[in-house]
Every structure is written in structure tokens, then in C-alpha cells.
From TrEMBL:
Protein name: dTDP-glucose 4,6-dehydratase
Record organism: Sphingobacterium oryzagri
Reactions catalysed according to its record: dTDP-alpha-D-glucose = dTDP-4-dehydro-6-deoxy-alpha-D-glucose + H2O
Keywords per UniProt: Lyase, NAD
Coiled coil: none
Top-tier EC class: lyase
Length: 350
């Protein structure tokens, strides 16, 4: 069926995988990638599909309400998949306002534009908001986040995402806007920006620099391969129940120190370095303020209702990821030149 789908944040890490999937799997759809190209947005992520006839890139900032409405009027999307965001917890600690602007105000601008062009005729329309498990706060040693878990965000990042989730639900409850929401765990994979733990450590291992582990390294995250996340978004966008939210996770918990040790092991093998070489780079550093102990998702709902299954084990996904970074050293060098170095020095040496 012919549809126009507007994907925000499509030049970012997860967004580029979602854009690629939709452009390749749905040749009848027109895919509009709307992105401001902040430090995290990179059109090199989409080189392989940029010439496809069903793909259009539009540079725009979601905090600019008038421009967003103009774009919605021009392209008349039937569906929106909203991924544009400020996404890094450490940056939210140093500059929370940027997170309120993009994640809260930007989301409301998109909701207003969708409501305006759909004019209460919601047949065949859908606004899919992509969010995080961090809105649920921190777990102790046991338990899992379900769709019923109460919101309890701690970082400015998770507070801004929680607020955006509430606005999306409020537009459904108040105006009947057709929405679905996904809250997923930590993603990893190709194109991951090296401010986040896994690509930062890959970059530092390649350059034989210290691997900074916050606190005691016992913090736990549930890791999800980005290609599997894109698959889950496709399923929920097309088959999710109107007004519902779905948790997406990997049933794949790792303490940070164990994860980095596994990464060191695989990197040593792939780089032909003696076993134990990269692990010597592990360095415990000052903890992140308000650091959430543990995130873990119960993905039973999406599994049972929509048949979602991750396609790879963590070891396989990590191996694919490392291979991608080794084959794409130019990509890594490009994104770590310039402003990245300033960010890195301030965050880790300042
Ligand atoms: P990212 O930081 O890699 O990419 C964000 C993209 O949004 C970039 O292309 C950037 O240019 C764009 N953007 C930022 N501000 C914008 C603005 N004002 N207007 C238009 N575009 C703007 O983020 P990501 O890791 O790909 O995350 C995508 C989404 O998934 C986010 O909403 C994030 O909260 C959510 N999420 C991410 C993870 C994760 O592990 N990375 C986990 C759960 C949920
Ligand atoms: P990160 O990749 O920033 O994702 P999030 O904060 O959204 O979970 O961090 C993953 C985990 O790794 C988290 O517990 C913080 C920790 N971490 C470090 O120990 N060192 C680092 O340099 C970074 C960036 C993260």
C-alpha cells in the first residue's frame, strides 16, 4: 500500500537502521528522513540507500514548530516514527536544557503538526514514539521492567524522555491521536556514536587508550542489537495496538565490567593481539552522578502479541559490531575528529 512515512532522527544511530529497513523492505512507501544533523546525525550512515527513489532527506530541527508544520503540510505523512532526540545521559548532566528543548518541546511540536494535518481524521494514521527503558528508573538486583512499571526517571535524559512519553499518551487520551510507544533497552551495533560505552571502548582499544569504567563497573544494562530493535519498531508500527506501549529488550543483561572484558577478549582475537592485552587498558574512573544500578526489560508482551524474537545472541551481535568498526575506520575517524575530542577531554580528563 502506498504510504508516506516520516522518520525523525533518521541520520542517527538507531534511526539510520530504521530508515534503511523501511526504505528497503517497503518500496511502495515514501520514506522522509527528517533530521537536524546534530553532532550525532551523520548522512554517511545512509550512503547505501541515499539514491533510492523512495527516500528523501529533509534537514530540519524539531524545536522549530513553524518549519515542522510546513514540512508536514508539504509531505502529508500517514505515519510518523519519532526517534530524533538528545540521547546521551552524560551530556544531559552537563546540559539538561538541550534535552528539554529537543526531547520535550520537539516531541510536542511533532504531535501538534500531526494533529493539525490529520485534522481529527485518523483513519490509517499512526504516530510511533520511540523511547527508552530509562523512564522506569533503576532496578535492584532482581526484577524486570514491564509495561505496567511506574515511571521514575532519574537523569535529565530519562526525565525528558518520560515527559515526552506522557505528552504522546496525553495526545492519545485527549485528542484521540493514534499512537504507539516503544520503550527499549540499550542498543548496540554498527554506526553507534562513540560517546556510548561499547563504541567508545572499541575506539579506545584500537587506539590503545584507557577504557573508562564508571564506579565499580557492576552497573547492569540489557543490550539489544540495533537491527533487532529496527525489526521490533517495524512490527509495532504495523501491528501494535492503537494507544499501546511495548517494551523491547534482549533478555541479555551484562554488568559493565563483564561486557567490557568480553569486548577486550573479542578485540584481542580479531586484532591478533595477545590474550589479555586490551583488558590491561581497563581503568576505573569517577562514577556518573545519579547512576542507575540496573535496567532489564520483560519483553513478554511484544514476544507473545507480535511474535518478536531477537535474531542474534549478544556474542554474535558484538562480533558483527566489532567487524563493522574494523571495516569502517574512516567512519570512526571522521566522527571522532573535531568536536568529539573536546567532548572527550572535558568528560574524561576535565
Ligand atoms: P542518536 O543520538 O544516535 O541520534 C539522534 C538523532 O536525532 C541524530 O541524527 C540527530 O541529528 C537527531 N536530532 C537531535 N536533535 C534533533 C532536533 N532538534 N531536530 C531534529 N533532529 C535532531 O540517538 P539514538 O541512540 O539513535 O536514539 C534514537 C532514539 O531512540 C532516541 O529517541 C532515544 O531516546 C531512543 N533510545 C535510544 C537507545 C540507545 O541505546 N541508543 C535506547 C532506548 C531508546
Ligand atoms: P551508556 O552507553 O552511556 O548508556 P546508558 O547510560 O544510556 O545506559 O552507558 C552504559 C553503561 O556504561 C552505564 O552503566 C554507564 C557505563 N559507562 C561507563 O562505565 N563508562 C563510560 O565511559 C560510559 C560512556 C558509560
Amino acid at each position: 500500500m502506498n504510504k508516506t512515512i516520516l522518520i525523525t532522527g533518521g541520520a542517527g544511530f538507531i534511526g539510520s537502521h530504521v530508515v534503511r529497513k523501511f526504505v528497503s523492505d517497503y518500496p511502495d512507501y515514501q520514506i522522509i528522513n527528517l533530521d537536524a544533523l546534530t553532532y550525532a546525525g551523520n548522512l554517511e550512515n545512509l550512503k547505501d540507500i541515499e539514491g533510492f527513489p523512495n527516500y528523501t532527506f529533509v534537514k530540519a530541527d524539531i524545536t522549530d514548530a513553524a518549519h515542522i508544520l510546513e514540512i508536514f503540510k508539504e509531505y502529508q505523512p500517514d505515519g510518523v516514527i519519532h526517534l530524533a532526540a538528545e540521547s546521551h545521559v552524560d551530556r544531559s548532566i552537563t546540559n539538561p536544557t538541550a534535552f528539554v528543548m529537543t526531547n520535550v518541546i520537539g516531541t510536542v511540536n511533532l504531535l501538534n503538526a500531526a494533529k493539525e494535518i490529520w485534522k481529527d481524521n485518523y483513519e490509517g494514521k499512526r504516530f510511533h514514539h520511540v523511547s527508552t527503558d530509562e523512564v522506569f528508573g533503576a532496578l535492584g538486583e532482581t526484577g524486570l521492567f514491564t509495561e505496567e512499571t511506574k515511571y521514575d526517571p532519574h537523569s535529565p535524559y530519562s526525565a525528558s524522555k518520560a515527559s515526552s512519553d506522557h505528552f504522546v499518551r496525553a495526545y492519545h487520551d485527549t485528542y484521540g491521536l493514534p499512537i504507539v510507544l516503544t520503550n527499549c533497552s540499550n542498543n548496540y551495533g554498527p554506526n553507534h556514536f562513540p560517546e556510548k560505552l561499547i563504541p567508545l571502548c572499541i575506539h579506545n582499544i584500537l587506539n590503545e587508550k584507557p577504557l573508562p569504567i564508571y564506579g565499580d563497573g557492576k552497573y547492569t544494562r540489557d543490550w539489544l542489537f540495533v537491527v533487532d530493535h529496527a525489526k521490533a519498531i517495524d512490527l509495532v508500527f504495523h501491528q501494535g495496538k492503537n494507544g499501546d506501549c511495548y517494551n523491547v529488550g534482549g533478555f541479555n543483561e551484562w554488568q559493565n565490567i563483564d561486557l567490557v572484558s568480553e569486548l577486550c577478549k573479542q578485540m584481542d582475537e580479531k586484532l591478533g593481539r595477545a590474550a589479555g592485552t586490551s583488558a590491561k587498558l581497563i581503568t576505573y574512573v569517577k562514577d556518573r552522578p545519579g547512576h542507575d544500578l540496573r535496567y532489564a526489560i520483560d519483553a513478554t508482551k511484544i514476544n507473545q502479541e507480535l511474535g518478536y524474537q531477537p535474531s542474534v545472541t549478544f556474542e554474535e551481535g558484538l562480533s558483527i559490531t566489532i567487524d563493522w568498526f574494523l571495516k569502517n575506520e574512516d567512519w570512526l575517524n571522521n566522527v571522532t575528529s573535531g568536536d568529539y575530542q573536546k567532548y572527550y577531554d572535558k568528560q574524561y580528563e576535565g
